[in-house]
Each structure stands twice: as structure tokens, then as C-alpha cells.
Amino acid sequence: MNTKAVSSLQKMIDVNTPIIYISDYDFVRVDELIIQTIGKKNVYEWNPVTGGTHFVSKEKRGEESLENFLYQQYVLDAESLPECFLLLKEIDDYIDEARIKSMLLHIAQRRLYDKAFNTTIIIVSTKIKVPQEIEKYVSFLDIDLPNEEEIVALVRKHIAINHDEGFNEEDIPKLMPSLKGLTAFEIDRTLDMAMSSNGTLRAEDTTMIFRQKKQMVRQSGILELIDANESLDDIGGMEVLKDYLLAKAKVMAHMADVGKYGVQIPKGVFIVGMPGCGKSLCAKASAAAFNAPLLKLDMGSMMGKYVGESEGNLRKAIKLAEAAAPCILWIDEIEKAFSGVGGQSNDVVTRMFGYLLGWLQDKKSSVYVIATANNADNLPPELKRKGRFDEIFCVNLPSSDEREAIFKVHLGKKGKAELVVINVDYKKLANATNGFNGADIEAVVNETVEQCFLNVLESGDNNKQITITTDRLVAEAEKTVSISKSCKEQIDKMKKVFDASNFKNASK
Ligand code: ATP
């Protein structure tokens, strides 16, 4: 068991924390932590299946309902009561009930004000759900995911238990990246599956483990492991930003040497820009440039209903990313969470913001952060200041040269198809698409190719070659309502914000 978790739990107990909240789905690991920290003292467990029992002996305590379990503790005579821990597992279906909330509140307050009442509540749940009424008595405990040393130990233990004689120790470093970011329980399960396919664990199992991991990350509901097939060559224009990302990727690839030369560990980049101009594309293409997995954190969907839930989600996401390092953590739509921090926003959002900034400021790991936003208008100035991110780039609507480059990217892809010939004047295409963003251009290309295909179908000759010409594309572009027309007001406003800012231009 990780010693950091043991000492953090001990510290929380030492400072009389009334309610300790552990959000983890590896209950076996949490039990080990409790045993190592609290040992065989008075620990009583309540869970929906067994009701109240002694944590170690599993003897029934007589209380079936959570309400009764808590009540019996609350009314005990404090003078005759030794130090005691109530371990409440999976109580999120009950924690909202008025009597339960009030009982938790009373026990927490008694813990704080009655010196003789030495009862600490430990809540363990896969979810984070803390009603507002008890929030200020709760401290969250994060159990770090296994580090490299612990993963090696888990793999060796697995090999020994399964008598896997075909296993080659040299495969451990090759398996390592795919096992990082998983809990001990998940690692065990994954290794079982990998072994069951061919009877032994091998470096080749990495692909299968990675697939499995993708599912587990998705199940955690906070981060998404993105399968990105794009490369920086798939981005038309934005040369400055692409060069910048390439340089950071080189630094990250040589993290072992940065210290020797006093080079700063890259933190991340903040990309603000017009919609449909390739911000997401940059994040996806970075995965290939950095040769690292891309983990997406969607700020919009992360904001939970319960106090502590969003905060806990952010902490979990960062913990997962740290454990999966080297990786790219893509924070999408950062403005959805942090717009207006410092003004009317609530305490939770402000605290989350502080947590993210603190983490970014002190970050030593090889997690490269790419934050993207459409609107930088209402974002707190702390986020826009250098030092948090290494650089802030703004992405404007593409220039004429960039529109040419974007056409080249998308027509280049179409030209790879067997029966498609591209014969165009890129300058003319750029001139005909002033005010278009990358998404508009991509749509023009797609629509034109589809139209040509429909014509082929109509002609009845399904093996006929199609030629994509300038005229066809220009005709399609003329039918298209570009972003600068459909969202004129928003685009003009953003342009003003960028002009007045000190953000670096992604293009020049
Ligand atoms: P939003 O802010 O609306 O999420 P975004 O800036 O993240 O938009 P993307 O999702 O990256 O935009 O781009 C939308 C589509 O447009 C993508 O499918 C991408 O292929 C295409 N596109 C945008 N910009 C470029 C570009 N510079 N080069 C090539 N394709 C581009």
C-alpha cells in the first residue's frame, strides 16, 4: 500500500477531521489502507449489504439500518467510549435522506466540540456525493494510483501466482506505459485478461491492455482516452503554433536530460480561438507529435450536481493523468467551468480553479496540458497570465495562405481515393472562401465530393473516375454560409478581444 496514502489518512485523523471521504472503487485497497493506518482499533463498518458489522471480525453489531447504526454511536456515553471509526461504504443512495444528513452532521459536530467523543467517520464510495449541509466537515483523501515501482511489484506478483514461466522480465518496461493510470485492481484484471489470451504475458499484449484501459478510463466517467489519428501535417496553417508544439514535444521526449541543462519542464499551452478553426485538431495532432496518449477532460460535463463532486472529479482527473504520464491532458471548453471566477461564481468553482492553477504552477510530471477555449472574454486573468501555461495562443480565421493550406490537407485526403482526381487552382479557392473557417472548408470539400459521387451513381457507371475542379468547389463555397456570416457578431467580438490581448498569434 502506498505510504503517502497511509500518512495522509493518519494526518487527517491526527487533526481531528470529523468526516474523511475516500472516493475509490478499489475497496480492497481501501480496506488495506484502513488496516495499515488504523490497525485493529475499533472500526465498525456499515454497507448496504451486511448492515453494521465489526470491520475485522465481521461480527454483526445488531443495527441493520444506517440510521440506527449512526444513532447508536451518537447517543453513546462519551466517557466510556474508546477511539472509534465508522466506516461507511457506498452510502450515496442514503446520504441525501434528511435523518442521515442530520445524524452525520451531529456526529461531526460532537467530534469537534466534545473532547471525549472520539469517533471519526470514514466514507468510502465510488462516487463523490456530499450534501451541502455537511460539506465543511468533510476532507477528501486521494489514494494515488500505483507508481512504476508498485506496478513492477504487481506484475511480478501476478507472474509468480500464475506460474507464468514464459514471461520475460525485459518486457516489463514495454508493458509499463499501458499499465500506468490504472488501480491495482484494474492492473490485476487486465493482466489476467492479457494472460488468458495466450497463456503468458508478453510485450505484444500492450495493444490489448491499451484497449482495455481505454474502456476503464471511460468508465471512470471523467476522462476520455482519445484515439487520435491526426498528425501536425493534417493542420493547414498555424505554422507558429505547430513549430511551438514540435519544440515542446522534443523537450518532453528528453525529460531525463532537462535538469542537466536547466530547461524548464513544459507545463502546457492555452489555445483560444474562433470556432471550427482547428483547436481540437491541434490537441489531437499533438498526441502523435508527443507520441503520448491523449486524455480529454470535458469541463462542461465535469461540473457535477453535488458539492464536492466537480471538485473531486477534477482532482481525480489530474491524479489519473499524473499516473498515466507521459500523456497529454486536453482540457476542452475550459471557459465553461471558469468563466467569471472571482465575480459571481460559487465557492466550489473558485476552489477548483485554485486547485488547477496550483497544480499547473507546481507541475513536475510529464503531463502536457492543452487547454482550449472559444471565448476568453470572461476567463479570470490568473489563467491568462504566463507562468500557469507556458504560452497562450489565439487562433483567428485562416488567412488566404492558410485557406490554401487547409484545402491542400482536405483535398489531399480525398485524392488518395482510387477513383478521385484533384485538379484545382488553390489560389482561386482561397480567394473564393474569404471568411471561411477550417470546418467550412472541410464541409465544402466533403459536399463537392459527395455531389460528384451522386452524379456517378446517376450515370449508372460505378467505376467512373471523378475530377474535383476549382469550379465545382467554388460553386459549393458560394452556397455555403460561412462562420463569419452565420456568427458575425461573435466573430467580430472575438477579433476585438484578440487584438487587444497579448496572446501570441498561432499563424504569424
Ligand atoms: P470548436 O471551438 O467549435 O470546438 P475547433 O477550433 O476545436 O472548434 P476543430 O474541431 O479542430 O475546431 O475543427 C473542426 C473541423 O474543421 C475539423 O474536422 C478539422 O478537420 C477542420 N479544420 C479546422 N481547422 C483546420 C485546419 N487549420 N486545417 C485542417 N482542418 C481544419
> What ligands does this structure carry?
adenosine-5'-triphosphate
Any low-confidence stretches, pLDDT <50, length ≥5? none
Structural class: alpha/beta
The amount of beta strand, in percent, is 5-15%
Radius of gyration over C-alpha positions, nearest whole angstrom: 28 Å
Distance between the termini: 51 Å
Number of helices: 22
Profile the largest sheet. Answer: 7 strands, mixed
What gross morphology would you assign?
elongated
Spatial order of the strands forming the largest sheet: 7-9-10-11-8-12-15
- Give the helix level as a range of percent: 40-55%
Mean pLDDT: 87
Topology:
Elements: H1 3-14, E1 19-23, H2 27-38, E2 42-47, E3 51-54, H3 66-74, E4 84-89, H4 98-113, E5 119-125, E6 138-141, H5 148-161, H6 172-179, H7 184-198, H8 206-219, E7 223-226, H9 239-253, H10 255-261, E8 268-273, H11 279-290, E9 294-298, H12 299-302, H13 309-324, E10 327-332, H14 334-338, H15 347-362, E11 367-373, H16 381-384, E12 391-395, H17 400-414, E13 420-423, H18 426-432, H19 438-459, E14 466-469, H20 470-479, H21 483-486, H22 488-500, E15 504-505
Parallel strand pairs: 1-5, 1-6, 2-4, 4-5, 8-11, 8-12, 9-10, 10-11, 12-15, 13-14
Antiparallel strand pairs: 2-3, 7-9
Helix pairs in contact: 1-2, 3-4, 5-7, 6-8, 7-8, 9-11, 13-15, 17-18, 17-19, 18-20, 19-20
Adenosine-5'-triphosphate binds at residues 235-238, 273, 275-281, 374, 406, 409, 438-439, 442.
